Amino acid sequence: KNEVFDALRRYAKPSQLWELYAFSCDPSTVDKKSDPKMRLMKEYHRLLSEGSEFEVEKYYFRNNWRLTTVNSSYSLCSTYPSQLIVPKSISDEDLWQASTFRAGRRLPIISWCNPVSGAVLARSSQPLVGLMMNFRNNADEKLVSALCTQNVDANLPPRKLYIVDARPRANALANGAKGGGSESSSNYPKSEVLFLGIQNIHTMRDSLSRLRDYVDAHGSISSNGSSSAVSLVGDRRNRGSTWGGGSLNSMTQFSSMLGEWLNHIQNILVGASWIAAQIAQESASVLVHCSDGWDRTTQLIALACLLLDPYYRTFDGFQALVEKDWLAFGHPFAERLGIPTVSENGGSQYELLRQPSVGNLTSSPSRGSLGTPGSSSNTSVQSQTSNNSSPILLQWLDCIAQLLRLYPAAFQFSSKFLVDFMDCVLSCRFGNFLCNSEREREQSGVTSSCHCMWTYLADLRASGGSFHEHINPFYDRERYWLPLVPPAAALAPTLWPQFYLRWTCPPESQGGGLESHGHSMRKKYEASVKSKEMAESRSRDIKMKMESMLTDLQRERRASSSALAMAQRARRENVAIKRAIQTIGCTVNFSTNENQVDKSEEMSYSFRREADTVSQQDDNADLSVSISAIEDSLVSETPSNQVCETLCPFRSREGCRWPHAACAQLGSQFVGLKANFDAFDRLSVKDCYFPKE
């Protein structure tokens, strides 16, 4: 019991990265060949090569971008991937200079590009323009301007560049007091700066907490396990004035909490949809950033990519999108999920701190190196880091669920897949979402030490086949192969029941059961198809057996006809032989002797027909008959008078006069007599000589 308790305490509140369950979950079966960096390179190749989803004969803008390894050692930016897509006109030296002008050295980098229109979707952190917004950087302005390539058609207006700041304008100005801020459109030609007004991580965390209170209070089963909603409706004392364990006034108050969360979801949806619309409809380029460029920026970039590229709406594309924009570009999963991360000297779980959004950007615009402890004590560090937890990934998945409700046939995966995906991230069973960046995961060796979540989900789908609940039964790729641009009026989110209501009220968590009903109908259809195939297979087997039996029957019929024809021919031959013998004055009488079966009369005949005669039943066929008698040694010295008198042509009234009779003078005997008729061997008899019986 103590061991179980210690294990639960260690895994529930681990103090070090190595105490997470992912490192002890069946380590012998870990696939050490799994390489997320290679998968990222594969996605880059898809974006920059002719293997992209856009099918055209030639991509003109493909040569405007290049892949650089300037960050291979993570010295340019420790929270960026080792491989980056940048404009071809920008050198590596320009990248080094531009990185000094952005918070955390997170310079503008291309995340997605359209090789047909030349539009790009880029991301970065806030510029370090200062309080007066008068600081500038030539390399940064050159890099941002290079994102806006020239249109192929000279008749088209110049390509526009939108710089989207995800923060409220007031927050951006507040960051300017500490060295940050936002761009000025006057410093970036053909650009326009917009603010989306999405709140920071602390506001999102508090909003989720209030949402949980709302769900617990107004679910059919409360958090303490007692009945609440249904059982309290119609309470006689209050005449139905209670619902969910509280008064209608408290219900209204909690409804405002739900509306607060849904407003955040709507702001993210509207911002990402607007970005996708500018790229898809105007062929404009968009640069997105917030303060650090790894929370709100990641939400908007990943959601806009999902709307723009149908590949990301498949299972493989979803994996590529998460590994590119969430993992490779350094979303701080350890901080946002509240789990420990790595440190070189094995110190506190929270020694590796990120630069806070409201931190001193002028003194240290980039994050410290691995293992560099903060100036505060471990207690204050843990308190500060615990306040950095926020449901950023959950909000992104919630937005996808809203889009899936709006476009039920545009996604290969279902809402259940999103729920299980989030559960896998929170379980700490897999190493994909540990640590805060690609660099930390590489140095801690989580890829080779922990299981891969993508393999687990793929095996889970394979076990259920086409009926698995992760697969969207309504998916229609041919219909939704273009970018999705939802109208603003349609972006009215509702509570995601499959995730938030699955514990409090499971029946209602299915959201009307559309997907489950679709899966049920698909299972029935597939079952009927299988039954039909089995019936057709049995029908084919029965038909083959009947054909085989018919063939055997025809074979037996032919054999029977042949046997009957042979019997009839033998009968005619016997009749012909009998008549032939009778024409020479002999009487044919077949008899047997029980004691002399082998020594009695032996009469053999053979017949021959014209060669290659077509008809085997020709009644006019020539017959050749030969008769041979037994040897002299087998002849009895006292022949039977009965046989001799019956068959001998030389018989007289006195009876047999053997051996003084004329037959003896011929040296022959007929049945009991020795005979050899050579002339009879040459006798040819035809049936036509004799009348038919």
Could you explain the architecture of this structure?
The protein is mainly alpha-helical and 693 residues long. The chain has a domain of 218 residues: Protein-Tyrosine Phosphatase, Chain A. It has 22 helices and 11 strands. The protein has a 5-stranded mixed β-sheet, with helices on one face. Strand 3 and strand 4 form a beta hairpin. Helix 6 crosses helix 8 and helix 8 packs across helix 9. The longest helix has 70 residues. The radius of gyration is 50 Å and the shape is elongated. The relative contact order is 0.08. This is Myotubularin phosphatase domain-containing protein. GO terms for molecular function: phosphatidylinositol-3,5-bisphosphate phosphatase activity; phosphatidylinositol-3-phosphate phosphatase activity. InterPro entries: Myotubularin, Myotubularin-like_Pase_dom, Prot-tyrosine_phosphatase-like, Tyr_Pase_AS.
Quick recap:
By secondary structure, this protein is mainly α.
Q: Which spans of ≥5 residues are poorly predicted at pLDDT below 50? A: 51-60, 221-247, 344-385, 591-643, 667-676
Shape, per Cα inertia axes: elongated
CATH architecture of one domain: Alpha-Beta Complex
Span between termini: 110 Å
What is the count of DSSP helices, taking H or I runs of 4+ residues? 22
Q: What is CATH's topology name of one domain?
A: Protein-Tyrosine Phosphatase, Chain A
Mean pLDDT, rounded to whole units? Answer: 75
Overall number of strands: 11
What Rg do the Cα atoms give?
Answer: 50 Å
Content of β-strand: 5-15%
Q: How is the largest sheet built, in terms of strand order?
A: 3-4-9-5-6
Structural class: mainly alpha
> Which CATH class of one domain?
Alpha Beta
Q: Roughly what percent helix?
A: 40-55%
Q: Biggest sheet, in brief?
A: 5 strands, mixed
Pfam families: Myotub-related (PF06602)
GO molecular function: phosphatidylinositol-3,5-bisphosphate phosphatase activity; phosphatidylinositol-3-phosphate phosphatase activity
InterPro entries: Myotubularin, Myotubularin-like_Pase_dom, Prot-tyrosine_phosphatase-like, Tyr_Pase_AS
Protein name: Myotubularin phosphatase domain-containing protein
